[in-house]
Amino acid sequence: MSRAESSAPSGLVVLTDRWQARRPLPEVVAAAVAGGARWVVLREKDLPRVDRAALAAELRPILTEAGGTLIVAGPDPLDGDAVHLPAAGPYPPPRHGLVGRSCHDQAELRRLTTEDYATLSPVFPSRTKPGHGPPLHHAGLRELIQVSPVPLLALGGIETPDQVHACLQAGAGGVAVLGAVMRAEDPVEAVTTLMTPFAATQPPTRKGREP
Questions:
Q1: What does the DSSP assignment read for 7-63?
Q2: Which tens digits make up the pLDDT trace of 120-172?
């Protein structure tokens, strides 16, 4: 098994946005973890580093105690060892324990080198980023998954179990969600509901890196 296949995030991955969250971010993340989420990507890029590092230090134990991982958006891991990079760079990617990358098309997928995984977006129209796209939908997602050198997470506009199921059927190793959890009145219930397709769906075999 390749390093990417063994360490890549899977299942439901939660992206943070404190501006959309109905409660303080640590409470929302704790609720998401209670609902079954084991991967959280800390965004909040508008914060000064000192404040963002303090937030990472507050969130990381919530994930660690549940056997999960906090991933930091951007090249600075904020005293951790997991980052999620934008499509624009840096290239080559920094060396950390876990490195992901945002991708949107085949050209960006072809630029991947040592990344462990990538997100592919937008899969569906997104309320968080209205007008961003065009959306890939099931067919476009499946096509890009077949040519990706790393495991992919579907991202963008995923708000229902049916959409999660469609992404898994297309071959995604998991889904990443933001608004569906951040805007939820009950993040525990939101995560639990979105995770139901994972118990019933076995994603089809995907082309990946050779060991």
A1: HS--EEEEEP-TTT-SS-HHHHHHHHHHTT--EEEE--TTS-HHHHHHHHHHHHHHH
A2: 999 998 776 655 668 999 999 999 999 999 999 999 999 999 999 999 999 99
Q: Is residue 41 predicted with pLDDT exceeding 60?
A: yes
Tell me which residue has tokens 């937008």: 122
pLDDT of residue 126: 74
* Cα–Cα distance list, 118 to 62, 87, 108 (Å): 24, 10, 10
Q: In CATH, which of 3.50.50.60, 2.60.40.10, 3.30.365.10, 3.20.20.70 is domain 3-200?
A: 3.20.20.70
Nearest to residue 194, comparing CAs of 168, 161, 170, 169? 161
* Cβ pair 144, 122 in contact under 8 A: no
Structure tokens, 45: 């890029």
Is 95 strand, coil or helix? Answer: coil
Q: What is the pTM of this model?
A: 0.90
Give the pLDDT mean for 36-49.
Answer: 98
Specify whether the CB–CB gap between 33 and 15 falls below 8 A. no
pLDDT in tens, 199-209: 876 544 444 44
Helix axes 25-34, 187-194, angle to 10 degrees: 40
What are the residue ranges spanned by the domains of the chain? Answer: 3-200
